[in-house]
Amino acid sequence: xxxxxxxxxxxxxxxxxxxxxxxxxxxxxxxxxxxxxxxxxxxxxxxxxxxxxxxxxxxxxxxxxxxxxxxxxxxxxxxxxxxxxxxxxxxxxxxxxxxxxxxxxxxxxxxxxxxxxxxxxxxxxxxxxxxxxxxxxxxxxxxx
Length: 144
Prior knowledge:
Elements: E1 4-9, E2 24-26, E3 34-40, E4 45-46, E5 51-52, E6 57-64, E7 70-75, H1 77-92, H2 103-112, E8 123-126, E9 131-138, E10 142-143
Parallel strand pairs: 3-6
Antiparallel strand pairs: 1-7, 2-9, 3-4, 5-10, 6-9, 7-8
């Protein structure tokens, strides 16, 4: 099975529900074997391709160098589809905007619905100019 990291521009079609074991799990910083910097531009991402080894733990340093909100996410296609309603709720509540994420509104909404806090171990949601990190242990060899 081929796994992909889907790098999403504003309206993602991804999900976090489902068996994470298929693609891996949150990695331990002490087990990182490689660090990769991901640059999210508005129309493309760098690097375009990454070869991952089975049981490799990678630290991703994610930079949003574009002018729009972007998300870096590790998931299966099915997981992405199941996550779409959460992202749409962020848009509908004016938390996820084209050029920023209203983190204060996000915190308030998370008090009512914890999944709206968007604190998933397999994703980084960034406004333009922001950066974030994600450590992931892959369960299979793959090209992403």
